């Protein structure tokens, strides 16, 4: 059951994450797009923190029901949001796009929205030719390589293992603080960091923020991995001395 839920939730998370980023990027104006896109992580981190806070005090099943309830609220909320103006522009529906932009307070961007999708046919995104252009056009190949590299490095850095087994890690570390309470501190730290990022992304730039955050992650993972090697090394040295 756990494996099945993990597969289903993983598929759902992948679809929702991509859809959210595309939607937020299409409804936001260019001067605040970076801030809004980085702010989307705050919601996900808040959800993880909520699970950390609820988990120690309820059963495993109740934690799942709590997450399910949050998803229902999300589903109902999506029903009331407007369609993306870029989607209407691609479909050639000027009146619908104008109404959405008026709702968003961006009616003056109507011409820019239609200009940005100029030459794009309604079925282009779903056609096999569009997928071929990802690999045949040099600029698209570079973008694909950078995107896949960043996503692969992020997911293989061990972030999922640390988040999923945070309580167990604190137990093995012998922390004086209760492991489940210490796990909540991780959620709070991630939340604070995600709230700082939107204010820096427009000032410092995307690249420098990515480099700095990656450097800090690398240092913390190095210390984390080394801390697990030290007990083994000490144990081996002790056995060698006794021998």
Any overview of this molecule?
The protein has helices at 2-27, 33-54, 60-79, 85-91, 94-104, 110-116, 128-136, 138-155, 159-164, 166-173, 179-201, 206-242. It has 243 residues and is mainly α. It is globular and about 65 Å long. 80% of the residues lie in helices and 0% in strands. This is Major facilitator superfamily (MFS) profile domain-containing protein. InterPro entries: MFS_dom, MFS_sugar_transport-like, MFS_trans_sf, MFS_Trehalose_Transporter, Sugar_transporter_CS.
Please describe the topology of this protein.
Blueprint: H1 2-27, H2 33-54, H3 60-79, H4 85-91, H5 94-104, H6 110-116, H7 128-136, H8 138-155, H9 159-164, H10 166-173, H11 179-201, H12 206-242
Subcellular location: Membrane
Protein name: Major facilitator superfamily (MFS) profile domain-containing protein
Membrane topology: Multi-pass membrane protein
Number of helices: 12
Helix content: over 70%
- Outline, from the CA principal axes? globular
Give me the strand/helix succession. Answer: HHHHHHHHHHHH
Structural class: mainly alpha
How far apart are the first and last residues' alpha carbons, in Å? Answer: 48 Å
Taking the sheet with the most strands, its summary is: none
Mean pLDDT across all amino acids: 79
Pfam family, one: Sugar_tr
Membrane topology: Multi-pass membrane protein
Transmembrane segments: 6-23, 35-58, 64-81, 143-169, 181-201, 208-228
Keywords: Membrane, Transmembrane, Transmembrane helix
């Amino acid at each position: 059951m756990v494996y099945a839920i993990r597969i289903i939730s993983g598929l759902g998370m992948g679809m929702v994450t991509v859809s959210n980023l595309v939607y937020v990027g299409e409804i936001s104006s260019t001067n605040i797009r970076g801030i809004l896109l980085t702010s989307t992580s705050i919601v996900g981190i808040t959800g993880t923190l909520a699970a950390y806070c609820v988990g120690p005090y309820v059963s495993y099943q109740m934690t799942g029901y709590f997450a399910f309830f949050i998803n229902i609220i999300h589903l109902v909320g999506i029903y009331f949001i407007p369609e993306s103006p870029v989607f209407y522009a691609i479909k050639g529906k000027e009146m619908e796009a104008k109404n959405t932009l008026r709702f968003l307070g961006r009616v003056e961007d109507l011409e820019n929205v239609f200009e940005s999708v100029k030459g794009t046919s309604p079925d282009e995104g779903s056609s096999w030719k569009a997928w071929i252009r990802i690999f045949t056009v040099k600029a698209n190949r570079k973008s694909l390589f950078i995107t896949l590299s960043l996503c692969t490095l992020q997911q293989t850095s061990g972030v999922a293992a640390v988040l999923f087994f945070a309580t167990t890690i604190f137990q093995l570390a012998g922390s004086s603080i209760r492991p489940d309470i210490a796990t909540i501190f991780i959620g709070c730290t991630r939340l604070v960091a995600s709230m700082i990022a939107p204010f820096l992304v427009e000032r410092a730039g995307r690249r420098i923020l990515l480099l700095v955050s990656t450097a800090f992650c690398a240092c913390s993972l190095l210390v984390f991995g080394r801390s697990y090697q030290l007990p083994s090394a000490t144990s081996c040295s002790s056995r060698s001395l006794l021998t």
